[in-house]
Specification:
The complex is a heterotetramer, with 2 copies of chain A (500 residues) and 2 copies of chain B (158 residues).
Chain A: H1 9-20, H2 31-40, H3 47-52, E1 58-60, H4 68-80, E2 87-90, H5 93-96, H6 100-113, H7 123-137, E3 142-145, H8 152-160, E4 165-167, H9 183-202, E5 208-210, H10 222-238, E6 243-249, H11 254-271, E7 277-283, H12 293-310, E8 314-316, H13 329-346, H14 356-377, H15 382-392, E9 410-413, E10 419-423, H16 431-448, H17 454-463, H18 475-479, E11 496-497
Helix pairs in contact in A: 4-7, 4-13, 7-8, 8-9, 9-10, 10-11, 10-14, 11-12, 11-14, 12-13, 14-15
Chain B: H1 2-5, E1 14-19, H2 27-38, E2 42-45, H3 52-61, E3 64-71, H4 76-80, H5 83-89, E4 95-100, H6 109-119, E5 123-125, H7 131-143
Parallel strand pairs in B: 1-2, 1-3, 3-4, 4-5
Helix pairs in contact in B: 2-7
The structure holds cobalamin (2 copies).
Pathway (chains A, C): Amino-acid degradation; L-glutamate degradation via mesaconate pathway; acetate and pyruvate from L-glutamate: step 1/4
Cofactor (chains A, C): adenosylcob(III)alamin
Catalytic activity (chains A, C): (2S,3S)-3-methyl-L-aspartate = L-glutamate
Chain lengths: 500, 158, 500, 158
């Protein structure tokens, strides 16, 4: 039965051995020699230490290509030309699905054709030695970034391979990333991963764990993201994780973003045991980007400015090519440098903005209410509480593709551009808070002369890529609101490549 | 548009919609589903991470006018391999569209479009596609099946 | 004798006729037919109306190439692809020196070679008809932007050519732009220009005038810029100008920039007659840019964000290629779109920052003190006061190359990155204000463990291009402060192209 | 450096500095003047908007070790035409440097450098030049006149 309890040593060892047999490279991932390997690494590669001791937000991009030499070159480039403080290795989609055979085929194809036929680095297929080569080839500490519901073998191999930070979590790598994975099972899988990290930690190799804060990346209300982060943090702490980086994805409203990062840090520190070192990571806008590098640079600029104001421990940067596809190394490095310039120019300025406390209070109150619901649903057991709360809709994530979540919650921006909740579903939030959101959304509806509806949501989803924050109706749209057309065709961009 | 054409729904014109492969990007199809439904189409949204088989059997099950395949994560080429053969085997004559981010990286759109045309898709849409362009294309392809869809350019950005 | 008095009609006519004979194209610049031409233009080309009625900051780039067809294409591109609201025509350096022969040679060379052998559009050489073609060929209103101390013939021809906005002023286009031009003479020349604009205005063609606020673009203390703007505004108003856009160049400290723009608007409205419509223009960072487009985009991003907060009527955008040289049209349009994205994403957010009032008060107090000095120096006559105040150093501009200014004032950033005055020269500012600046700079000196010196100024001049706001000493520099080296050579970038 | 070389100033090594043509960009030479003075050179700063004639007569007037020409505004090619001929006519054997933004637009640096080498400049510096690189180059060229300055690469970004 699912419980938020530490996995016993024997079970850890047993499961680990079984998993290592799933793919030939598992054999090399031997724990004791891995500890020795980590101990042999220079202190500069200690991810947790680097992050926790920084006095300015550290910058980290996303990056993963199939082949080892290309990945090495890519990371070196991002270090040297982008000035990244921390490096990533993003894993490909087949590995995320545990389809190691398909990943193998992709990898071989990539090696032969020289083309990037996978959208990331298939670390399981590469195996422990290749990971270590990568870790040694670059100067900065590296994190495994992926999106894998069952990342146990990936964790076994990459941690043995010298990585000291591992992204993800049972909710954050299930709900936004998959349709059919059972949440209960995913939690068990991540308990194993956290337990493994705990085992390393106990031996002095403090593995940093980073739940994925942005979730679906699309107008996620801060309170929901924070509640999920705290829950994942608690589950990880139980298993012995002692370095935790809680995440949050920019929504684009400066006051709300700063308030949310403060609330995240505050609640993280409050709810997590004292022996856990809590840090925060801010993701530059994770929703749809403008199909134009110049405008994308504007979005990145606002991300950098917000990071300078909120001072998270880490910033995950975007590239100006985010819209189009996996960025070139040049564009990726450019995103880092644009962000750096903004942070460094703003870092020493004292900029105190009004109203952050009030927004933070609202966020914290809502997040607490969601957390209480989780505890209640599990009769005090967080693990069971999570499953039950998602099942009842007491906890929910907008646009969640997963069958484990109701995805009944719909967000929309208020008249100031802050993300509010338009449709509550069964979210465990009391009427008083709901009234606040409703009032704000009514205010917007009045401004726009239209009623609250899914159309607001759709407009808001596109707003930033269309160059605005709030998806206001265009003149012609509000005229013809009842006409039944989803959007008017007048200023459509892009489109179809039809044969002729 | 609805008024102009003089009827309210596109009855019996089921549109199958889904994200292929192990891709979980759901936002695009959520928006598309809403837009197509609002325009009167009977939409069956298969959701994300839909296999070829699921697309084919859904197409078989209904009087399917169109199969809309979405892919964002960069593996569309691999994921769509053989889809049209399977559809043909079940004698499905629905028009097929594909849309989203159809290749890994910063690829050339002309090549990409050509590739998916060759796989058998009737129309190929990039990620800048506005839902209204999809509605318009479907209205043409489903209401005027006899017209040559290939000769019509339904670029909305005029 | 120089006086702040309206030039009589006869004198205007006389001087105008004489000037029109200086270059063959002058003949076509006939006032009455020019009025008729302006009246024939569609209302969308009325610069003053477009600017004054806007409810969001309007964006305008800089752009000028030698040939008419290229200039037309360039402006169309910036309109269509950059989304510029207002268009510029930047004049070449020879025209600025009234060297119309050299400009003619450059223009002919450009026509033959197809290369841009001039750094701008030689409007005098092109003449009235070509200007009108340009005005007609583009949709948005166009402004003449230059840097010409004696711009009288340029004004005669471009205004007759259909331009409705003219940048510059007797101080702002002398002090930063030239060495030997006599300030008194420059004032007389600009009195003529303003009088000409006044004549158009009286006939219903409201010519917009825009004194150049950034001055030397390099750490100009806001109070100095504002005092100069008010003085130029007053001189222009006397001659009948009724649409005035006062300028200010970003210093990079958000609080100071917002405060400065508010102070500019406030003092502008207070000091200028009621029948003058005062608007403001914010120039994105005018000092040295980073030699890297990605980081330059960060600088532009901060400019856009600041504009969103300060809500000037107009923003002059920079391009990511600012460091390198005159930008390509693509880069120029990119700067516009990056700025637009930031402004549009932030426009609807309410972001109230603390401490702006206090900084604004300090700026206004200092500016008033400088303005009082001008009035005193001229016994109530602004025109004479300006000359005398610059002569005595009571009014001064840092880094001024002009012999008419003492250039004894040296600015440096305080510990928060605000521009303060390190070396006062004879600036007419009382001890109380000086003490405030001194205290702030001492604070910085303490932080940096070095004494206040020119080295701070030099470090600050380079700081933004080096990726920071404040030019802090590097570790090795502060160690070896007394060693006599200007800078340590350790992290030198760029350098020399030596033969080998 | 001062200590290492064992003397305090570069006596009698006048360095002429100015911005050529009608260019008024003064900030660069202000910084350079300060750095060169601090390094012990005897700097004559002619300021902005300095004509060729002014450069030449200043070089004549002093025991000039080096003539440093600055240009930012994009007209350096035109402005420097004939400068070296005039210097040669007065038998001035000072080394000549030019630095700044040496062409209009986004030009290729190699072409630009080549162009100014051909005009006769001993060293050509781009706008990313740190003053310390100028100090180092001058120290070599002025203190070790017998060495071949052309064979030394004084890139500081090692
Ligand atoms: C939000 C987002 C996510 C969220 C998705 C949450 C969710 N479950 O939906 C999260 C963070 C979870 C995520 C994960 C991943 N993502 Co992602 N994601 C995005 C992002 C930023 C926005 C996508 C979006 O929602 N857009 C808004 C909607 C409304 O637009 P749309 O999806 O494009 O759909 C419109 C059109 O494309 C078109 N359309 C779409 N489908 C179809 C079909 C038809 C028939 C038609 C006619 C039209 C059509 O109409 C739609 C409506 O207007 C994009 C980049 C971008 N576009 O800015 C990257 C992006 C798509 N993601 C990418 C990648 C690589 C991934 C990951 C593999 C890796 C990772 N970094 O973790 C994982 C994949 C996980 C998985 N198993 O699928 C890449 C794809 C690369 C490529 N193709 O080369 C992109 C382009 C980012 C990038 N530059 O690297 N992502
Ligand atoms: C500030 C500035 C101005 C100020 C100048 C104030 C003043 N009087 O000094 C103002 C606003 C008045 C101005 C005016 C103009 N400017 Co201006 N300006 C700049 C800017 C933003 C910074 C220059 C600067 O001060 N840098 C800081 C100093 C410390 O660096 P620096 O000057 O480069 O000098 C260093 C090195 O270059 C080197 N160096 C310089 N000279 C020499 C010489 C030698 C021998 C050596 C060894 C080294 C060396 O060492 C210096 C110290 O580190 C530059 C763009 C940039 N770089 O970001 C444009 C720029 C130089 N300007 C430009 C132009 C076109 C103009 C104008 C013609 C047009 C206009 N838009 O109005 C006018 C010209 C007026 C005139 N008559 O000269 C262009 C030049 C284009 C080109 N070359 O292709 C630039 C590049 C901007 C652009 N991208 O368009 N400008």
């Amino acid at each position: 039965m699912l419980r938020d309890e530490r996995i016993p040593d024997e079970e850890l060892i047993e499961v680990e051995s079984a998993l290592r047999e799933r793919w030939p490279t598992g054999a090399d991932a031997e724990f004791e020699s891995a500890i020795a390997y980590h101990e042999s690494l220079p202190t500069t590669k200690r991810f947790a230490d680097a992050l926790e001791s920084a006095d300015q937000p550290l910058l980290q991009p996303r990056a993963g290509v199939p082949c080892l030499d290309d990945q090495t070159e890519l990371l070196r480039y991002l270090d040297k030309e982008g000035g990244a403080d921390l490096l990533p290795t993003t894993i490909d989609s087949y590995t995320r699905d545990n389809e190691y055979e398909k990943a193998q085929r992709g990898l071989e194809e990539a090696r032969e054709s020289g083309e990037d036929t996978l959208n990331g680095f298939p670390a399981v297929n590469h195996g422990v030695e290749a990971c270590r080569e990568l870790v040694e080839a670059v100067d900065a500490p590296i994190e495994v970034r992926h999106g894998t519901p069952d990342a146990r073998l990936l964790a076994i191999i990459t941690l043995a391979g010298g990585f000291q930070s591992f992204e993800g979590g049972p909710i954050s790598y299930n709900i936004p990333y998959t349709k059919e994975h059972d949440l209960k099972e995913t939690i068990e899988h991540w308990q194993f991963i956290d337990r493994l990290c705990g085992a390393y930690t106990k031996r002095g190799v403090r593995i940093n764990r980073e739940p994925f804060g942005p979730l679906t990346g699309t107008l996620v209300p801060p309170s929901i993201a924070i509640a999920v982060m705290v829950v994942e943090g608690l589950l990880a702490a139980t298993q012995g994780v002692r370095s935790l980086t809680l995440g949050y994805g920019q929504v684009g409203n400066v006051v709300q973003d700063v308030a949310a990062l403060r609330a995240l840090r505050e609640l993280g520190e409050e709810y997590l045991p004292n022996d856990v070192v809590v840090t925060t990571v801010f993701h530059e806008w994770m929703g749809g980007f403008p199909p134009d590098e110049a405008r994308a640079n504007g979005v990145i600029g606002l991300g950098g400015a917000t990071a300078a104001l909120a001072q998270p421990d880490k910033v995950i940067t975007k590239s100006p090519q985010e819209f189009q596809g996996v960025p070139t190394q040049e564009a990726n490095a450019a995103g880092l440098r644009t962000t750096r310039q903004l942070i460094d120019m703003m870092a020493e300025q004292e900029i105190i903005i009004d109203g952050i406390d009030k927004e933070q209070e609202l966020i914290e109150r809502t997040a607490r209410s969601l957390l209480d619901a989780v505890f209640d649903h599990g009769d005090g057991d967080v693990a069971r509480g999570v499953v039950a709360a998602f099942n009842s809709g007491a906890l929910d994530v907008p646009f969640a593709p997963s069958d484990s979540a109701k995805a009944d919650v719909l967000p929309a921006r208020d008249d100031d551009g802050r993300v509010r909740i338009l449709q509550w579903g069964d979210l465990a939030v009391d009427q008083e808070i709901r009234d606040i959101h409703d009032a704000r959304l009514d205010e917007r509806a009045r401004t726009e002369g239209r009623s609250r509806s899914f159309r607001m949501v759709a407009d808001d989803v596109d707003a930033i890529s269309d160059g605005k924050l709030i998806g206001r109706p265009t003149a012609s749209e509000s005229d013809s609101e009842e006409s039944g057309r989803a959007t008017d065709g007048t200023d459509t961009i892009g489109g179809e490549g039809d044969a002729d | 548009m609805v008024e102009i054409l003089g009827y309210d729904t596109h009855m019996g014109q089921t549109v199958i919609l889904g994200v292929i492969g192990s891709d979980a990007h759901v936002v695009g199809i959520t928006i598309l589903e809403q837009a197509l439904s609002a325009a009167g189409f009977d939409v069956k949204n298969l959701g994300v991470q839909t296999s070829k088989d699921e697309f084919v059997s859904a197409a078989q099950k209904h009087d399917t006018g169109a199969v809309l395949v979405s892919s964002l994560y960069g593996h569309a080429r691999q994921d769509c391999q053989g889809l049209h053969k399977q559809l043909a085997d079940t004698e499905c004559d629905a028009v097929t569209y594909i849309g989203g981010n159809l290749s890994v990286g910063q690829d050339d759109w002309d090549d990409t479009r050509e590739h998916f045309r060759e796989l058998g898709f009737n129309r190929v849409f990039d990620a800048e596609t506005d839902p209204s362009a999809v509605v318009s294309a479907l209205e043409r392809d489903l209401d005027h099946r006899t017209a040559e869809p290939e000769t019509q350019r339904v670029r909305m950005n005029s």
